[in-house]
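Here is a complete protein record:
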Amino acid sequence: MNRILDLVKNDLVCIYVDKENPEKFWLGFIIGYDNQFLLLERVDGGGRSDGISVIKTSEIYAVETRNAYTNKFRGVAERIFEMELFNHEGVMQEFMNCLIVENEMVCIETNNSDCADVTGIVKEVIDGWICVEAYDGEKRDGIAYCRLENITSIDIMETL
C-alpha cells in the first residue's frame, strides 16, 4: 500500500473503504501515512478543506486520482494543513505531537460514530492512547482518553 501512496501523495485523491457502498469515498490530499494509518485532509464539494480523516490502510480497497472527478477540483481545492508526514512509521504519533505543539483545539470522532466524541486539546500520547483536555463549548470539562487506533476523524477547530 505504501508504494501506491508514494505514487499519489502529491495529487488530489479519492479513497474508498466501504465495499458495500462504492459510491461513498473521501476526496482529499494525503498528508501522511504509515503501514497502519493514512491521514487525509478532506475536501468538500465546494473545494474547501473539511477536516482530517484517519483511515486504516487495511480498510482501503481503492485509490483514484487524475480522473474526471478529481480533475474537477484541481486548482480549486484548498489545502490548509501544510505538514507532510511521509516517513512510513508512527504517523499518528507524529500528527498528535504536532497537535500538542500547536495547542490545537480539535473535535475527534472515534469508530465512525459521525459525531464529535471528544472535543479538546491533545496533551500527550501514552502507550497508544491520547490524553485530551476536554471542553464543553468554552468551558473545561475534565480529561478524556481514547485509543489512537479508534480515531476516524479529527477536525481542527482553532488555535488557543
Notes: The chain has a mean pLDDT of 90.
